Amino acid sequence: MTAQLNPRGDVAVLVPAAGAGVRLGPGAPKALRLLGGEPLLVHAVRRIAAAPSVHTIVVAAPATEVAAVRELLAPVAPVLVVPGGAERQASVAAALAAVPPGPDIVLVHDAARALTPPELVESVAGAVRAGHHAVIPVLPVVDTIKEVGAGEVVLGTVDRSALRAVQTPQGFRRSVLTAAHAAAGDPLTDDAGLVEKQGVPVFCVPGSEYALKVTRPFDLALAEHLLAAGH
Ligand SMILES: Nc1ccn([C@@H]2O[C@H](COP(=O)(O)OP(=O)(O)OP(=O)(O)O)[C@@H](O)[C@H]2O)c(=O)n1
Ligand SMILES: C[C@](O)(CO)[C@H](O)COP(=O)(O)O
To answer: What per-residue confidence (pLDDT) applies to 4?
Structure first.
């Protein structure tokens, strides 16, 4: 099977899926844990593949699970699978290195955001296509945010009007993401952070509540409800 989805598409999506899922508790690597009877990664890839602009999907799998992940995803969508690294950033770099010639837009999307709608993939890619070299989906921060010091004593209340909670997929001109990873130092938690360090402006688009990251057991329970409700 070719690893290409839409040959006219201009978007490659990298899916870091090599994390352990420590915060979710003991079990299989998080991307392989079940949501509605199917691994999180299957849900994520199915939704990415439904986005019409997507040309190629590259999954960074846990190193010991590469063959199993290829087999798992074969009936879902044509994908390339590479071994991930010890940090998310290394997993993204490995997937980026495997993108074939062609796509000029690269999105990076956590397998853990399993219910992300295809429309968000399209809106992030569309903003890159429109001229923004780096694009992130964001949500407003809904809670009051406190800065806390030693002994759990509040130091102050943070002005949250300028704060945003950041999701994936994050989208980039391919050359911009490649240069940012080539220059990367200590691992950061997201790719936009690397691009910011290069002085490239990062543009925000509205995120989606359904793009929640399954991080803790509560998130998985919430995702189960959303899936059962048809998302
Ligand atoms: N070495 C790593 C670490 C993380 N990821 C991926 O990056 C995404 C976001 O990471 P997170 O949700 O924090 O996953 P984990 O690192 O698995 O979580 P934890 O810190 O609880 O172990 C996930 O899809 C995860 O599989 C990865 O590909 N390679
Ligand atoms: C990339 C990310 O999902 C954006 O919210 C997030 O930064 C991943 O961070 P984590 O600490 O590895 O969950």
So the answer is: 78
Extract the tokens encoding 176: 């911009």
DSSP summary character for residue 114: T
Whole-angstrom Cα distance, residue 80 to residue 221?
A: 30
The predicted-structure confidence for 2-28, as pLDDT tens digits, reads as follows 577 999 999 999 999 999 999 999 999
Q: Of all protein residues, whose CA lies closest to atom 8 belonging to ligand 1?
A: 110
Relative to beta strand 34-35, strand 54-61 is unpaired
- DSSP summary character for residue 141: -
Which tokens is 63 given?
């190193």
Q: pLDDT of 54-96, one tens digit each?
A: 999 999 999 999 999 999 999 999 999 999 999 999 999 999 9
What per-residue string of b and e applies to 207-227 under the rule 16 or more CB within 10 Å gives b? bbebbbbbbeeebbeebeebb
207 C-beta closer than 6 A to ligand 1: no
212 alpha carbon – ligand 2 mean position (Å): 11
